[in-house]
């Protein structure tokens, strides 16, 4: 039986990819590194430190760990400042409706995000009340594709993975859900999340009715 839902944040509840892109772009420009939207796609769902390593590898750059942390912090300062402009208008279409529906039907709901800024994003969206549990980049040390963040969220909800559906927009996020033996819903194109149990192009199509129809034996 499905009793709980675990949501990724960036790309599922709200589209922060553009803000992450702008902040990494500013840092890369300052450093003289090549960075474009194609490379930004590779950062979907992975932690901040893993992200900067992908960018440095792409540019053939190697620096000592303290400098890498300093640069990642610089990017984060730019990103966090840009979050000040986020408002409750910035849910991805369909996301607020689904969260509201899940609440009204009494499901348990958790966040399972790699972001250390998840609480700030939820606050800006006025979304904190939708979640029984917030698992974020501070909750576990191994990030996606390891299943740890989803296992953490499920454990805090008091549910085993087979009773939960994970919503994810990242390839590595679906990998993480599968590694943890969760049911999975992919949001995005086939080539990114086609390995999920069910896939929707956007959150708008991902209604509770559609999800229940697909997983009908589990409700
Ligand atoms: C999300 C995004 C990633 C980002 C990560 C860490 O998973 O999809 O692109 O790198 O969070 O975010 P943070 O806010 O901690 O830098
Ligand atoms: Mg995501």
Write the layout of secondary structure elements.
Elements: E1 4-7, H1 17-31, H2 37-41, H3 48-58, H4 65-83, H5 95-104, E2 108-112, H6 118-125, E3 133-135, H7 148-157, E4 164-168, H8 171-179, E5 183-187, H9 190-193, E6 198-200, H10 208-214
Parallel strand pairs: 1-2, 1-4, 2-3, 4-5, 5-6
Helix pairs in contact: 1-4, 3-4
The structure holds 6-O-phosphono-alpha-D-glucopyranose and magnesium ion.
6-O-phosphono-alpha-D-glucopyranose is lined by residues 10-11, 20, 43-48, 51, 76, 113-117, 137.
Task: Describe the protein's architecture and organization.
It is a single chain. By secondary structure, the protein is an alpha/beta fold. It contains ten helices and six strands. It has helices at residues 17-31, 37-41, 48-58, 65-83, 95-104, 118-125, 148-157, 171-179, 190-193, 208-214; strands at 4-7, 108-112, 133-135, 164-168, 183-187, 198-200. It has a six-stranded parallel sheet, sandwiched between helices. Strand 5, helix 9 and strand 6 form a beta-alpha-beta unit. Helix 1 (17-31) crosses helix 4 and helix 3 crosses helix 4. The longest helix is centred in the middle third of the chain and has 19 residues, at 65-83. The radius of gyration is 17 Å and the shape is globular. The N and C termini lie close together (5 Å). The relative contact order is 0.17. The model has no long low-confidence stretch (mean pLDDT 97). It binds 6-O-phosphono-alpha-D-glucopyranose and magnesium ion. 6-O-phosphono-alpha-D-glucopyranose (G6P) is lined by residues 10-11, 20, 43-48, 51, 76, 113-117, 137. It comes from Flagellimonas profundi. This is Beta-phosphoglucomutase. Keywords: Isomerase. InterPro entries: B-phosphoglucomutase_hydrolase, Beta-PGM, HAD-like_sf, HAD-SF_hydro_IA, HAD_sf, PGP-like_dom2. Its EC number is 5.4.2.6.
